[in-house]
């Protein structure tokens, strides 16, 4: 569950179909599986009551019924709680939308049938947790991760062709010193590309802290190449 995922849901326009948004407390410290499945049953009944307010044609109501059935099937047959405390589902069969998210905090049980996904409780949870960007880099390769709510998710990876250092004999016609300068230039170009990619990563995910990992001299050079915004986050 990331800000980017929420942003994509916010931009979703399923018209004329409606979206079913379900928030379910699955905290094992507060209730057993049979208990939250019983709560689910009550929420789905409430959702069918909300269908009366849907002004759309018959196909829209039929799609909502399919959404409710799909949510019931997911929770009772497919969902396996791995220690998470909240479950959030969004379904719009008419437009092919299905999103299942788990949260580290319990959520208030609720179901909302509306023209757009109901995101306010989810946004509040995301804002409560600090998000870290993580970059692990060496002289040729860089991997970016997002650390959010205790989960480390790989974001992207980049690899540059950087010549290897040659200790004896050099390359034909090149001195060892010249080879060294050539390799260092390629490494610097690689780090500048990594720094630019990190800034794009930041603009996409808007993390508030940045962790750099790798050989000490590479990390120092990368930090100096970062945008000033990112340097303050390290």
Question: Could you explain how this protein is built, in words?
Answer:
The chain is α+β, with helices and mostly antiparallel strands and 234 residues long. The chain folds into 2 domains: 3-128, eRF1 domain 1 (Translation, Eukaryotic Peptide Chain Release Factor Subunit 1, Chain A, 2-Layer Sandwich), CATH 3.30.960; 131-231, eRF1 domain 2 (Nucleotidyltransferase, domain 5). The chain contains 7 helices and 8 strands, in the order H-E-H-H-E-E-E-H-E-E-E-H-E-H-H. The strands form 2 sheets. The chain has a 4-stranded antiparallel sheet, covered by helices on one side. Strands 7-6-5-8 form a 4-stranded mixed sheet, with helices on one face. Strand 5 and strand 6 (141-148) form a beta hairpin. Mean pLDDT is 86; it is low at 166-173.
Portion in beta strands: 15-25%
Give the mean pLDDT: 86
Q: Give the strand line-up of the largest sheet.
A: 3-2-1-4
Q: Assign the CATH superfamily of the largest domain.
A: eRF1 domain 1
* SS summary, helix count: 7
CATH T-level fold name of the largest domain = Translation, Eukaryotic Peptide Chain Release Factor Subunit 1, Chain A
Secondary-structure arrangement, i.e. CATH architecture of the largest domain: 2-Layer Sandwich
What class do helices, strands and sheet pairing give? alpha+beta
* Cα end-to-end separation: 23 Å
- Shape assignment: elongated
How many independent structural domains?
Answer: 2
| Number of E strands | 8
**Cα-based radius of gyration, to the nearest Å:** 25 Å
Main sheet summary: 4 strands, antiparallel
Share in helix: 40-55%
